[in-house]
From TrEMBL:
It comes from Geospiza parvula (Small tree-finch). Keywords: Cytoplasm, Fatty acid metabolism, Hydrolase, Lipid metabolism, Mitochondrion, Phosphoprotein, Repeat, Serine esterase, Transit peptide. One of its GO terms (biological process) is acyl-CoA metabolic process. It catalyses: tetradecanoyl-CoA + H2O = tetradecanoate + CoA + H(+); dodecanoyl-CoA + H2O = dodecanoate + CoA + H(+); butanoyl-CoA + H2O = butanoate + CoA + H(+); hexadecanoyl-CoA + H2O = hexadecanoate + CoA + H(+). This is Acyl-coenzyme A thioesterase 11. Pathway: Lipid metabolism; fatty acid metabolism. Gene3D superfamilies: 3.30.530.20, Hotdog Thioesterase (3.10.129.10). The lineage of its organism: Eukaryota, Metazoa, Chordata, Craniata, Vertebrata. Its main location: cytoplasm.
Length: 614
């Protein structure tokens, strides 16, 4: 007699060719065992329903979501019995690609992978869980968000490993671009990711310019760090060059070299270069943006190069590149990919060890040395200004040219996250003006909105100019333009009226970032947050105020009508004023917004402000 296990397997094989409903399949296997079989154990996180309770409807499922679970076997690990980062990159790329192709309905290729910070290592016997889903589709490219965690099957422990964002491009016949259908987010989390994806895309496009600007403003001379107890190691000693022949197992389902495989090979040579500096086994902590510049195919030879660019006190940066050529050596090599990886060496307590210094070679070596220092600053800016939660970021972050891209990103994304929150409650309504509140653990936010007979682009032009705000907002005394960063970002010094029970007026140094819609359905955005400038320190005659997150969103309702909404995450000094208005004990906020409407209607035909903008 067949065992129940093999009978179930046989029925599943039959199920692949004949329609066998799942309930019949379960009956065949479970019914034969009799009613004395023990009940199935619940999975971690699975709810037990009370008798007679109605089953709750399943949550909305993103059709692009892909989940992958992999058991870490010895063949996946390094000498320490930990999952190889190269193998993890393969799995990440595979899951992300499958998600992208679910949305596109056609083959997709990896264009880039954003910074990845690895929080923990994964041991043999544990399970890697990867969840990937498309956050937003643009014209022919899309952003895929990836979350990686591990699961210990013995203890039931779950822990986050990393979060990544990958960009994929849809390809039609002969490599032609495919225009993608827009993605409609459903949940609050999806709406937030959808909204901020446009800002992340903008940040990727200006990454090179950010590095170039930082290097231009830095001293040109290479200054070697002095570190006690070790001599400088020539960078050339760490250089690695390795060649790989692309075979059919290395290709994806489209015939090109699998992007995850290229990333794994790059991680391998980078690890060797790092080992040559420290004479130990390093641990990969972060990867800075993989950027695929072109495809390679089966039969190509991939030349992988790596060298330690700079060694800081406890970490080192390794630059790595991949080039491809065919059978003919005379043909010039094609640049396929490049990336920068940060390694540390851990002691027995798991703490980073002090590393030897690096002595760069004159010329290109010194250039790479300086660029590594600039990239370290950019990584810190991205990690602590962009990636951190709003409550973990100081209110008034110091402003300088090197972090302008990330502060601007943080400014706009914070407002978009506030807009996408789902629990806004209508607090009061006065004629056309509606006031909503959002109560969270640490913040009380309010939103006030109304429909105005003005084109959205005109309202955007008028409201993004803080120098004209005093014309409708009685709280503003003046707004001086301090610095024009670019066409979309300005820094103002704002002076406001005295608050009740205050002896001095307030002043603010505010970064104003504005964005036009990225695609149909997006609002015009004007975001405000506080920054600090050395040229405008706090002064005795003012009380220095701060704003964490505020701004306007303007949605076109028709060619001549717009919905104008103002959002503000109330700070402690402003809280009493807000709660008084929310409770109906004052109508000052509603009256101010009504004055805003009159200002917009009065100036909607003014063509000069369309050109001035700021």
């Amino acid at each position: 007699m067949l065992s129940f296990f093999w009978l179930r397997c046989l029925l599943k094989m039959v199920k692949g060719n004949i329609i066998v409903p799942e309930d019949i399949l379960n009956f065949c296997c479970n019914g034969l065992q009799g009613s004395t079989s023990p009940p199935r154990a619940r999975e971690p996180g699975e709810w037990e329903e009370a008798p007679g309770a109605m089953a709750s409807p399943p949550a909305a499922h993103n059709p692009t979501e892909v989940q992958m679970s992999q058991l870490v076997l010895p063949c996946h690990t390094n000498h320490r019995g930990e999952l190889s980062t190269g193998q993890l990159l393969k799995w990440i790329d595979t899951a992300a690609c499958l998600s992208a192709e679910r949305h596109a309905g056609c083959p997709c290729v990896t264009a880039s992978m954003d910074d990845i910070y690895f929080e923990h290592t994964i041991s043999v016997g544990q399970v890697v869980n990867i969840k990937a889903k498309v956050n937003r589709a643009f014209n022919s490219s899309m952003e895929v968000g990836i979350q990686v965690s591990y699961e210990d099957l013995c203890s039931g422990k779950h822990c986050s490993i990393c979060k990544a964002y990958a960009t994929f491009v849809a390809q039609g016949p002969l490599g032609s671009k495919v225009r993608l259908e827009p993605l409609i987010p459903q949940t609050e989390e999806e709406k937030i990711e959808y909204s901020i994806a446009a800002e992340r895309r903008r940040m990727r496009l200006v990454h090179k310019d950010t590095l170039k600007d930082l290097l231009t403003s830095s001293p040109q001379e290479t200054e070697l760090e002095t570190r006690d107890g070790s001599g400088a190691v020539p960078a050339e000693r760490t250089r690695v060059e390795s060649v790989e022949l692309v075979l059919p197992p290395h290709a994806n389902h489209q015939g090109n070299t699998f992007g995850g495989q290229i990333m794994a090979w790059m991680e391998n040579v980078a690890t060797i270069a790092a080992s040559r500096l420290c004479h130990a086994h390093p641990t990969l902590r972060a990867i800075e943006m993989f950027h695929f510049r072109g495809p390679s195919q089966v039969g190509d030879r991939l030349v992988l190069k790596a060298i330690v660019n700079n060694a800081f006190k406890n970490s080192m940066e390794v630059g790595v590149s991949a080039e491809a050529y065919g059978q003919e050596m005379s043909v010039s090599r094609r640049h396929i990919n490049s990336a920068f990886m940060t390694f540390v060496v851990l002691d027995q307590q798991g703490q980073p060890r002090t590393l030897p210094m690096v002595a760069p070679e004159p010329g290109d070596g010194e250039r790479r040395y300086r660029e590594a220092s600039a990239r370290k600053k950019i990584r810190l800016d991205r990690k602590y200004v962009v990636s951190c939660k709003q409550t973990e970021v100081p209110l008034s972050v110091p402003w300088d040219q090197s972090n302008k891209v990330y502060l601007s990103y943080n400014n706009v994304s914070a407002l978009k996250m506030l807009v996408a929150k789902a629990n806004w409650a209508l607090a009061r309504e006065k004629e056309k003006v509606r006031m909503y509140t959002l109560e969270e653990d640490k913040f009380l936010s309010f939103r006030i909105e109304m429909s105005v007979c003005i084109p959205a682009s005109r309202a955007f032009s008028l409201l993004s100019n803080l120098r004209r705000r005093h014309e409708w907002d009685s709280h503003y005394v003046s707004a001086e333009l301090v610095q024009k960063v670019d066409d979309d970002d300005m820094i103002y010094h704002v002076v406001s009226q005295k608050l009740r029970n205050e002896s001095k007026p307030q002043d603010f140094v505010i970064l104003a970032s504005r964005r036009k819609p990225c695609s149909k359905g997006d609002p015009y955005v004007v975001a405000f947050r506080s920054v600090t400038l050395p040229t405008h320190p706090a002064r005795a005659e003012f009380t220095r105020g701060e704003t964490l997150c505020s701004g306007f969103c303007i949605w076109p309702e028709s060619q001549e009508m717009s919905k104008v909404a103002y959002y503000n995450q109330a700070m402690p000094g402003y809280l009493t004023y807000v709660t008084t208005n929310v409770a109906g004990l004052s109508s000052d906020i509603c009256s101010t917004f009504e004055a805003c409407e009159k200002f917009l209607l009065k100036n909607k035909e003014d063509l000069i402000s369309r050109l001035q903008d700021f």
